[in-house]
């Protein structure tokens, strides 16, 4: 059900915080099961691309990104466009978030929808404020820098950015604050 | 061909016993163009009587004949239906400016059929200039229907609205129409009252609601009204109050915060629509507002929910109120549970179309599966038309489905991942379509998908004796497959093939057959220029049109073959080579 892709991005290790049912350590088995189901479905196009095929035996690897075939599935442009419009309309309404940085004279605003995940977001913040944020780890927060990115969630609590899955973060984040100095260290120690 | 009306001569042994007048009187009652074609072949007298009495002409391929030939043979035409581009143009497989422009037809008609009343076009290019020309050249013009056409904008509609004083029908469906604003609707004169059919559901912008309301109010014969998605619920209420006589309604956006009073008023307005048999539109509908519809649903025979991303629960609530449904279109967001609800609530269902909400996202495991289809087949034994987009299917499921519903005339199954096998057994889907053609002896139209070998085509050629239209994509193993179909399907009229390994031998095996067909389309197959040239040379009454992407490659990308009495077309663009 869950799309694992956001967790696999960048340096931030989200596998450890991924919400799922199952005992710790059972993860690898589950992953394989998922990808073999995918293999069944993807078998044929792989072989087709080689220009010849017989029967339905499995391919070795499921391609992760499929090139779109022109005119397939066979749906009239009119119908395709009515759903594209919906998606575009949804995209046009961004999720704008105020970002404050300790010591900075004024706030900035970013659109969370533009970012695909945490590493994207953090790179953008680093660019915007000309600083380094450091490496995330569940245990120690953001190491190697005096800055820690935090956010205020729906309940009014200040949370460390990166603890929850990206989608959950997008929907619960009300505003961002880049903490500096000792305050940041306090949060980073996983209180 | 004798252009003069032959007078009955009592001395002539070949003349019919009927005077011409009686024969013509009788023949004028014939509506079906197939019957008329048969009649015209009986003898010269009947040919002449038929041509003088024909008022409607249907032309399935606009290039199979010319407007001069048509008007030369049929002097009394009032209504024309024309189809243009190959069907795969709907899916962007035909480049722009390919042709099928209506204009030259209109120019000839303006001279030969000044009393033309109706024009119905499908997959034609229609410019605003042509629409203006149409509106100003035919004083009796009544009805225009454009389906899957391109080249025009709302300015063209303005011309129609302005000039066609006796218009009864303006039906603009699923076109590539440029939107220059909704002002066209205000172009209907204030004293204009004849409209019976108004469909602008595919418009992408606002129209003046005041103008629309006034128009609906004064057109008392309006029976079909399909508005676009910018018309809000409370506006819909005002329209319904003015037109309770509607038989065919396309709502606008079905999501708006209504007060309880507004809700009650809307419900009452629907209750007053006692003749509603078709309902569509329903953009953004959720089950929250379905109760306003319930009172009108009892008489519904066609419900089009394919623009409303409903969940299964929504259908479960709505369908029990629609026991008389014959035709139902839905999105696959309703999933298998929704289809189960269809199976249990719609015993009279004859047609089901399930469209994909997210056709290009193949990673999502949503949509409908084989179980939903089986559920429908169990509950709806009268099903004869299905269009089903899914991400998984099995041979066993299809066999069960056609056991339950052996009367399929149209079976269009689209397993969206090309060349996907039976997901349980890993085998090709040959047996599925074998079951379809063996069991459904009345099958006229078939679209196949999934991993398919030549065996599928052997089955089709052997069993599908009534098949008229076949759509093939990513299927087959060798020329043999296509040869089986061409040899076995005596009634085949339209064959469209893409991305399949059929080559020259297959193409040429149909040499004797193509003149009895409307058309053949092959794209991304293994056909070369040589074979196309041979075909063109051997069969001069066929037009063989080739489109090549790569100058150096001897393979053709697209070949379109069709019979024609008009010779090669003179408006072919540079990328179309007529051999």
From TrEMBL, chain A:
Keyword Transcription: yes
Subcellular location: Nucleus
Main location as per UniProt: nucleus
GO terms for biological process, alphabetical: auxin-activated signaling pathway; regulation of DNA-templated transcription
Domain PB1: 94-181
This protein's record includes keyword Lyase: no
Pfam families: AUX_IAA
Keywords, alphabetical: Auxin signaling pathway, Nucleus, Repressor, Transcription, Transcription regulation
Disordered, as annotated region: 23-64
GO cellular component, one term: nucleus
Tree of life domain: Eukaryota
Stated role: Aux/IAA proteins are short-lived transcriptional factors that function as repressors of early auxin response genes at low auxin concentrations.
Family statement drawn from the similarity comment of this UniProt entry: Belongs to the Aux/IAA family.
Subunit structure: Homodimers and heterodimers.
Protein name (record): Auxin-responsive protein
Species whose genome carries this gene: Actinidia rufa
TrEMBL record, chain B:
InterPro entries: COI1_F-box, Leu-rich_rpt_Cys-con_subtyp, LRR_dom_sf, Transp_inhibit
Keywords, sorted A to Z: Auxin signaling pathway, Developmental protein, Nucleus, Ubl conjugation pathway
Location of the COI1 F-box domain: 16-56
A GO cellular-component term linked to this record: nucleus
GO BP term (any one): auxin-activated signaling pathway
UniProt keyword Nucleus present: yes
Location within or outside the cell: Nucleus
Pfam (any one): Transp_inhibit
Pathway(s) served: Protein modification; protein ubiquitination
KW Nucleus (keyword) present: yes
Top-level lineage group: Eukaryota
Span of domain Transport inhibitor response: 75-121
Molecular function per GO: auxin binding
PANTHER family the UniProt entry points to: F-BOX/TPR REPEAT PROTEIN POF3, S-PHASE KINASE-ASSOCIATED PROTEIN 2, ISOFORM A
Protein known as: Auxin signaling F-box 3
Species, as recorded: Actinidia rufa
């Amino acid at each position: 059900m869950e799309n694992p892709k956001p967790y696999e991005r960048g340096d931030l290790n989200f596998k450890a915080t991924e919400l799922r049912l199952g005992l710790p350590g059972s993860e690898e088995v589950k992953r394989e099961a998922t990808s073999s189901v995918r293999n069944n479905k993807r078998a044929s196009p792989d072989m087709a691309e080689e220009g010849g095929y017989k029967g339905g035996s499995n391919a070795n690897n499921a391609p992760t990104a499929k090139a779109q075939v022109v005119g397939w599935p066979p749906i009239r442009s009119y119908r395709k466009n009515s759903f594209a419009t919906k998606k575009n309309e949804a995209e046009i309404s961004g999720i704008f978030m105020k970002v404050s940085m300790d010591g900075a004279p004024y706030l900035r605003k970013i659109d969370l929808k533009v970012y695909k995940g945490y590493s994207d977001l953090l790179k953008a913040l680093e660019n915007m404020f000309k600083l380094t944020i450091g490496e995330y780890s569940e245990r120690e927060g953001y190491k190697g820098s005096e800055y820690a990115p935090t956010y205020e969630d729906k309940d009014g609590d200040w949370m460390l950015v990166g603890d929850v899955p990206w989608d959950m973060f997008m929907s619960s984040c009300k505003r961002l604050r880049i903490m500096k100095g000792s305050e940041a260290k306090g949060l980073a120690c996983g209180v | 061909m004798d252009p003069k009306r032959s007078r009955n001569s009592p001395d002539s042994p070949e003349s019919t016993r009927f005077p011409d007048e009686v024969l013509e009187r009788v023949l004028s009652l014939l509506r079906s163009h197939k019957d008329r074609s048969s009649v015209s072949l009986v003898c010269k007298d009947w040919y002449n009587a038929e041509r003088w009495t024909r008022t409607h002409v249907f032309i399935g391929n606009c290039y199979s004949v010319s407007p001069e030939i048509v008007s030369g043979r049929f002097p009394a035409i009032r209504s024309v239906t024309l189809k243009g581009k190959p069907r795969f143009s709907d899916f962007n497989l035909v480049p722009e400016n390919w042709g099928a422009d209506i204009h030259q037809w209109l120019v000839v008609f303006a001279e030969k059929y000044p009393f033309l009343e109706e024009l119905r076009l499908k997959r034609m290019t229609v410019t605003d200039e042509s629409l203006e020309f149409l509106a100003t050249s035919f004083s009796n013009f009544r009805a225009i229907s454009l389906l899957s056409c391109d080249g025009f904008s709302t300015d063209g509609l303005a011309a129609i609205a302005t000039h066609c004083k006796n218009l009864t029908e303006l039906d603009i469906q699923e076109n590539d129409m440029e939107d220059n604003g909704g002002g066209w609707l205000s172009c209907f004169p204030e004293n204009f009252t004849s409209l019976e059919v108004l469909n602008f559901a595919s418009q992408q912008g606002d129209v003046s609601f005041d103008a629309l309301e006034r128009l609906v109010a004064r057109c008392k014969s309006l029976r079909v009204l399909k508005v676009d998605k910018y018309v809000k619920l409370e506006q819909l209420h005002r329209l319904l109050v003015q037109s309770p006589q509607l038989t065919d309604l396309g709502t606008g956006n079905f999501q708006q915060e209504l007060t309880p009073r507004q809700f009650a008023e809307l419900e009452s307005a629907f209750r007053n629509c006692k003749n509603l048999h078709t309902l569509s539109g329903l953009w953004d509908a959720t089950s929250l507002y379905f109760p306003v519809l319930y009172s009108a649903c009892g008489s519904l025979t066609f419900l089009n929910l394919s623009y409303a991303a409903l969940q299964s629960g929504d259908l479960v609530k709505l369908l029990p109120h629609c026991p008389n449904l014959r035709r139902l279109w839905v999105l696959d967001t309703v999933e298998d549970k929704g289809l189960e609800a269809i199976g249990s609530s719609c015993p009279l269902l004859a047609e089901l179309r399930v469209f994909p909400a997210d056709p290009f996202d193949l990673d999502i495991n949503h949509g409908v599966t084989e179980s939903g289809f089986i559920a429908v087949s169990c509950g709806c034994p009268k099903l004869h038309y299905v269009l089903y987009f899914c991400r998984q299917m099995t041979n066993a499921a299809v066999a069960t489905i056609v056991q339950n519903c052996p009367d399929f005339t149209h079976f269009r199954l689209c397993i969206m991942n090309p060349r996907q096998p039976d997901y349980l057994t890993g085998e090709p889907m040959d047996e599925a379509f074998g079951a379809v053609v063996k069991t459904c002896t009345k099958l006229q139209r078939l679209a196949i998908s999934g991993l398919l070998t030549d065996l599928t085509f052997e089955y089709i050629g052997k069993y599908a004796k009534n098949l008229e239209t076949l759509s093939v994509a990513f299927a087959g193993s060798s020329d043999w497959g296509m040869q089986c179909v061409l040899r076995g399907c005596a009634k085949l009229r339209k064959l469209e093939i893409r991305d399949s390994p059929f080559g020259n031998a297959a193409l040429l095996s149909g040499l004797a057959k193509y003149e009895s067909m409307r058309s053949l389309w092959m794209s991304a197959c293994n056909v070369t220029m040589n074979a196309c040239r041979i075909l063109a040379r051997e069969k001069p009454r066929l037009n063989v049109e080739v489109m090549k992407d790569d100058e150096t490659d001897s393979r053709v990308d697209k070949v379109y073959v069709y019979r024609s009495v008009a010779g090669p077309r003179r408006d072919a663009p540079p990328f179309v080579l007529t051999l």
